[in-house]
């Protein structure tokens, strides 16, 4: 029986570019180039490794976002995923993590699943709670922030590393799992993979396709909101200390009252 793996990925603004808020204090996704979130690449990689070790497995990459979010899906397809699912609807603008988790849950149920894989957080929001909320909505076990995992005989096992100890975790499928950036480097798409990705299925759905009403998502219905934002101040010139034996004292004075003397 085919193991159905769904990887939730996100299209995010490039962190190396200048990022801004739009007039409605949502992330301005048009003023900067976007890409597949780097932390989600680790989840794609783990899905590929699990599929390679399984007798029969199929990987679906899933995203919620605007038209350009298809670029994130194509990157995951070029890495080796089998097919993609994109939920796109104008009413989704400004949806927070609670609304996004609802859309993802409905889409995951739509495509069918045994294992859902996520990255540890998105590089634009950074909340890191979506996998847990998604598992709750699906009514399945969650194993989050794993640095190592494996699937065998319908059971997923993994290791979560903490500051002072590591935990060995186990859950029966279906389950939701998130992995950290310590789980293994993600592979680079090959030229063959990039060309093959163009022929792989990419299905687009809107809210009605997954049974969600517009008043369940969007900025006006979000449980969290940004009230105020200011631009990052311009970088100022630093202070040069000519250390002639008094550098330590000058540093101590700076730490004590915030200025050099």
Automatic annotation (TrEMBL):
Domain Electron transfer flavoprotein alpha/beta-subunit N-terminal: 24-214
SMART domains: ETF
Record's keyword annotation contains Iron: no
Domain of life: Bacteria
Cofactor(s) required for function per UniProt: FAD
A family per Pfam: ETF
SUPFAM superfamilies in alphabetical order: Adenine nucleotide alpha hydrolases-like
PANTHER family with a match to the protein in the record: ELECTRON TRANSFER FLAVOPROTEIN BETA-SUBUNIT, ELECTRON TRANSFER FLAVOPROTEIN SUBUNIT BETA
Record's subunit section: Heterodimer of an alpha and a beta subunit.
Listed name of the protein: Electron transfer flavoprotein subunit beta
